[in-house]
């Protein structure tokens, strides 16, 4: 059988040759692979449930020319990728319209994004000047310049301008600029071409590459025979691009390509900047140290002093002449950068530190030149030059810049470590048609494509994200998630690129490569966060606008304040040092004021702290999306936790079931599982699995669940449908009330008992009579109580909002993924196995419908079945008997969720479902309480169930029976009272609430770190990271405030002292070069202060360490 390399169906071995060059033998790709595609977004009205989205997708996918369709019921949107040669957007709109939905195409907004590396940026004034220059370019929509990151991110219209014009605009503003990325070219492949003999052949290869679908841009170096290809990993891959090069031209294999790894631009630029400042400082020392010796040290030694005072002509001495000769190269050659910077700053009508340095050094230098001229032409002139001031000023500034650049490089250490996690090579497996491994080859990680199968040996790093196919092992994910313990991996588990395989051999199918890997997304997210400005940065921005003009005015007033009183005799002559006159003394004070002021320290106070904090958070599994989220998190007073999957483990299990009618256990299990089988909700899955096991226990295996007819989801109540000619309702007490199903005393008692045990009661009604009930539990997370307690200690209240027994809008978008629905399905399968025939296959229900916040319904075997909560039963007029009511009450009092099942509008039974609380939750709640942060639980579950769980965790406030939009409303109510609220949810079901909250935290993101609704993404599912996020933000804001104290302290306190306020009382006067040393120290102290955040430890871990 012909060998096939996974990831590219047409690719055949050998994949790589042993040599450096890459030679791939491939068959001709099909024509479809070369068609250019287009991606469009459509707004669709009338989508009510997942089945609507599924019907739209199924119809569109049958049309020739449409490659991919994704319909989101929650947002009412569809993203469609299609070939314009085969189909138009108009045809797509007409097709959707014919199905019965209203459709409108979003207007195209052709916006590109590019990132530039900025050279020569020193302060906030510089960044504002660059932003103004970029915004003046036609077509630029937005420009953001990061001072600490030394990068610019520009959103522009590619039809009007391009990256070259943006670079030119930056250079015209007086700064250097290099392109980092442009457009959607995060995935780049760098190749060196072999076999090229003429420029025409380079053009042939470029044309071949540009014709490949998914290639965004091809950049050719015709001299060095190098090519850089930007591509979409969803449409092509590196080996496919290499094969295209080999097939270019008239003869196959005429050209070859080898990987070319360009130097990392950021590290290269940083090292170049460090070396440049170091070399300039050393060169300046070569001249300034002798100047200092000739002016301050040697004149005190008689032999040397006499020689230096020897007159060359008139009053011009050897000492003055040597200082002039040595200082001039420092002033005009080594200090050239300050002249250039000052020129460009004044040209763009702004001022920065370069202006202050140029003014101060020029004043000292040209005054000294005046002294030289007067001494040369006069027989009796006596004056003291200040050449040492000019030379020492420039030397100290260069030393300060050198130390500052070195320190700033360390602020991005955490990010650099993340980028170095991915390995260089990986073992690619080639499979035959039956999945057997026929060859294994070590290739560069850059050549891995989606759907490749790779082998990861013990001790090796995982190259990209993927899913384990075979093998078992433990993987160390601490470098990505911060989890200290190795995580067990089995077939079906996800692995993250950059993590380390410890003890077993794993075979993994790649799912995300290039910029799509979790590691790349984390790096991109952290870089974006470091580029964004925190609101607290506005203080520095406002000060920078008038800082330099104020300093110049202060320096001039200082000179006047000493010169004029000296001329009129206000202060005695004994105050004037020897060899000086009043003008020189005033000049020294004025120059000192000019050079001691430092706008750089103010500009670095916030971005350096944000850089270190975001990098430190990323290394511990807490991704903070910018300074705004960081600043808001420190103000949090209340944390609102979603219950299912946040406070609880998120894997509900059925703990009990109850029949309320004469329906057999086999039929009950069949209809319950059939009604819930289409739901991806965890509770639905739990019901299906339980029904299968129960069916198997009492009879043959229940692998097939009958599909219900007239299936309907009842929001907040559960589901209903027709199964086997019987109307079945599965849900809570609200469903029975809505469907007029009476609840008997026994049912009421059962429900009450279940709820008291913090479990959810699910009832099953068949033909209007309650048949059985399920008791379902969802264990609370272990850290939940600890988080709430910690918040309470910090005076931040916690509110629990839950939507238990209800399908959220997002759950609809995911084909009804409610956890209770999953629990019911699993339990029904088990029960059906226990009591009846084998349930090998779950029957697909007809007319399946999801009822948001209530449950589902459908037709199973001709019977209308409802499975859901009480609201569903009430909405469908299923009566609840007293015994059903009693069972629900009992179940909910046990902190369990009750899922009712109704067949033909009669309660057939109920499931009691529990979702265990996370073990750390109580500790987390307690710790939050110590932080004076209150905790609130929000859930769609019944009040009794919610209250029982909240009591177990120590949460005093609960919002129950709340749907997703209701959660957002609860947050807004708290905000109207002046409370700063953080919402903690899974990032999917809780999107409206995450957006509404002051700080949205998506927990358990795993590899999906780009959740748009969240301000902070917590990679792990542990709630302890909620505390980490809030505590890190508080520590960071405290550090920023301390940085401002350092920066403003140097300027506010230093300037009056340097201006001579204490001179009349103490006689102490700081020369300008010493004032300049203080200025350099201010910037360095701010950066070093921010670097202290690298020693941050998680509060709960630190508490555990102290307790040990």
UniProtKB/TrEMBL annotation:
Task: Cite the InterPro entries for this sequence.
Answer: ATPase_P-typ_cyto_dom_N (IPR023299), ATPase_P-typ_P_site (IPR018303), ATPase_P-typ_TM_dom_sf (IPR023298), ATPase_P-typ_transduc_dom_A_sf (IPR008250), ATPase_P-type_domA (IPR059000), HAD-like_sf (IPR036412), HAD_sf (IPR023214), Heavy-metal-associated_CS (IPR017969)
- EC number of this enzyme: 7.2.2.8
Indicate where this protein is primarily found. Answer: membrane
TM segments? 281-300, 312-334, 355-377, 389-407, 546-565, 585-606, 1044-1067, 1073-1093
Per UniProt, subcellular location reads as: Membrane
Its protein name is P-type Cu(+) transporter
Gene responsible for this protein: LOC104597452
The protein's annotated catalytic reaction(s) are: Cu(+)(in) + ATP + H2O = Cu(+)(out) + ADP + phosphate + H(+)
């Amino acid at each position: 059988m012909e060998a096939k390399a996974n990831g590219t169906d047409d690719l055949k071995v050998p994949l790589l040759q042993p040599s450096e060059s890459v030679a791939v033998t491939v068959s001709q790709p099909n024509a479809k692979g070369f068609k250019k595609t287009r991606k469009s977004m459509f707004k669709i009205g009338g989508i009510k449930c997942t089945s609507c989205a599924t019907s739209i997708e199924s119809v569109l996918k049958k049309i020739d020319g449409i490659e991919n369709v994704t319909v989101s019921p929650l947002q009412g949107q569809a993203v469609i990728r299609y070939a314009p040669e085969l189909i138009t957007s108009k045809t797509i709109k007409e097709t959707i319209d014919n199905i019965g939905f209203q459709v409108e195409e979003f207007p195209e907004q052709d916006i590109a994004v590019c990132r530039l590396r900025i050279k020569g940026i020193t302060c906030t004034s510089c960044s504002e000047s660059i932003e103004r220059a970029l915004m003046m370019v036609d077509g630029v929509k937005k420009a953001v310049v990061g001072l600490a990151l030394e990068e610019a991110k520009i959103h522009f219209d590619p039809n009007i301008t391009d990256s070259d014009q943006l670079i030119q605009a930056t250079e015209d503003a007086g700064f250097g600029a290099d392109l980092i990325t442009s457009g959607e070219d995060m995935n780049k492949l760098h190749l060196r071409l072999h076999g090229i003999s003429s420029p025409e052949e380079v053009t042939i290869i470029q044309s071949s590459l540009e014709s490949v679908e998914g290639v965004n841009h091809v950049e050719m170096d015709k001299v060095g025979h190098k090519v850089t290809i930007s591509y979409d990993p969803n449409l092509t891959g590196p080996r496919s691009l290499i094969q295209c090069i080999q097939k270019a031209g008239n003869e196959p294999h005429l050209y070859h390509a080898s990987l070319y790894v360009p130097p990392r631009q950021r590290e290269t630029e940083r090292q170049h900047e460090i070396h440049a400042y170091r070399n300039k400082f050393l060169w300046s020392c070569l001249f300034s140290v002798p100047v200092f010796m000739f002016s301050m040290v040697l004149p005190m030694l008689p032999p040397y002093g006499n020689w230096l005072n020897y007159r060359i002509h008139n009053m011009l001495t050897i000492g003055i002449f040597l200082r002039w000769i040595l200082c001039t190269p420092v002033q005009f050659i080594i200090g050239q950068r300050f002249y250039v910077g000052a020129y460009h700053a004044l040209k763009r009508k702004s001022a920065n530190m370069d202006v202050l340095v140029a003014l101060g050094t020029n004043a000292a230098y040209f005054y000294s030149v005046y002294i030289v001229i007067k001494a040369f032409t006069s027989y009796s002139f006596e004056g003291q030059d200040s050449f040492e001031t000019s030379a020492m000023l420039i030397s100290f500034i260069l030393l300060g810049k050198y130390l500052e650049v070195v320190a700033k490089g360390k602020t991005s250490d955490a990010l650099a470590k993340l980028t170095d996690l991915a390995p260089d090579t990986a073992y690619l497996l080639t499979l035959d048609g039956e999945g057997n491994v026929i060859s294994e080859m070590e290739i560069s990680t850059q050549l891995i494509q989606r759907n490749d199968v790779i082998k990861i040996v013990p001790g090796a790093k995982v190259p990209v994200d993927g899913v384990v196919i075979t093998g078992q092992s433990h993987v160390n994910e601490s470098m990505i998630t911060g989890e200290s313990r190795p995580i067990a991996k089995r077939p079906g588990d996800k692995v993250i690129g950059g993590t380390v395989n410890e003890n077993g051999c794993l075979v993994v199918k790649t799912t995300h490569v290039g910029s799509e890997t979790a590691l790349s997304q984390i790096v991109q997210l952290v870089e974006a966060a470091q580029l964004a400005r925190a609101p607290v940065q506005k203080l520095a921005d406002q000060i920078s606008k008038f800082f330099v003009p104020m300093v110049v005015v202060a320096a001039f007033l200082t000179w006047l304040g000493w010169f004029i009183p000296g001329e009129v005799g206000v202060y005695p002559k004994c105050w004037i040092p020897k060899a000086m006159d009043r003008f020189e003394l005033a000049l020294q004070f004025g120059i000192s004021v000019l050079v001691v002021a430092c706008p750089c320290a103010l500009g670095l106070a916030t971005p350096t702290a944000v850089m270190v904090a975001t990098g430190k958070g990323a290394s511990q599994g807490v991704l903070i999306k910018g300074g705004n989220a960081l600043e808001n998190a420190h103000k949090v007073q209340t944390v609102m936790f979603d219950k299912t999957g946040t406070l609880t483990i998120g894997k509900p299990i059925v703990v009990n079931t109850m029949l309320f009618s004469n329906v057999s256990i086999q039929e009950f299990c069949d209809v319950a599982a059939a009604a819930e089988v289409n739901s991806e909700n965890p509770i639905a899955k739990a019901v299906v699995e339980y029904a299968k096991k129960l069916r198997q226990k009492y009879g043959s295996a229940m692998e097939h669940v009958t599909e219900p007819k007239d299936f309907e989801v009842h929001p907040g109540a559960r589901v209903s449908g027709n199964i086997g000619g019987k109307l079945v309702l599965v849900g809570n007490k609200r469903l029975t009330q809505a469907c007029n199903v009476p609840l008997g005393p026994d049912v009421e008692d059962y429900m009450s008992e279940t709820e008291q045990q913090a479990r959810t009661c699910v009832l099953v009604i068949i033909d209007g009579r309650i048949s059985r009930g399920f008791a379902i539990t969802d264990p609370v997370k272990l850290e939940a109580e600890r988080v709430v307690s910690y918040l309470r200690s910090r005076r931040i209240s916690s509110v629990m909002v839950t939507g238990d027994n209800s399908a959220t809008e997002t759950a609809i978008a995911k084909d009804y993924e409610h956890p209770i629905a999953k629990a019911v399905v699993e339990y029904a399968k088990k029960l059906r196995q226990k009591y009846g025939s084998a349930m090998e296959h779950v029957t697909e229900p007809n007319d399946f419908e999801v009822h948001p916040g209530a449950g589902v319904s459908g037709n199973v075997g001709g019977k209308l079945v409802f499975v859901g909560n009480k609201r569903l039963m009430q909405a469908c007029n299923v009566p609840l008997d007293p015994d059903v009511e009693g069972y629900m009450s009992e179940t909910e009092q046990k902190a369990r969720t009750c899922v009712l099942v109704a067949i033909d509008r009669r309660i057939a039974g109920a499931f009691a479902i529990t979702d265990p609380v996370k073990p750390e939750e109580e500790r987390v709640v307690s710790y939050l309480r110590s932080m004076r942060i209150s905790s609130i639980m929000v859930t769609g579950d019944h009040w009794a169930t919610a209250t029982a769980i909240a009591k177990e965790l120590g949460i005093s406030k609960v919002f129950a029976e709340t749907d997703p939009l209701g959660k957002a409303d609860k947050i807004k109510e708290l905000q109207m009272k002046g409370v700063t609220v953080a919402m903690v949810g899974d990032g999917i079901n809780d999107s409206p609430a995450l957006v509404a909250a002051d700080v949205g935290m998506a927990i358990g993101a795993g590899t999906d770190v780009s959740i748009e609704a969240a301000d902070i993404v917590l990679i792990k599912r542990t709630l302890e990271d909620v505390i980490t996020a809030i505590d890190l933000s508080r520590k960071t804001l405290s550090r920023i405030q301390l940085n401002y104290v350092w920066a403003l302290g140097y300027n506010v306190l230093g300037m009056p002292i340097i201006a001579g306020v204490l001179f009349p009382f103490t006689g102490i006067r700081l020369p300008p070069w010493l004032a300049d040393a203080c200025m350099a120290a201010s910037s360095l102290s701010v950066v070093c202060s921010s670097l202290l955040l690298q020693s941050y430890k998680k509060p709960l871990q630190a508490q555990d360490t102290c307790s040990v």
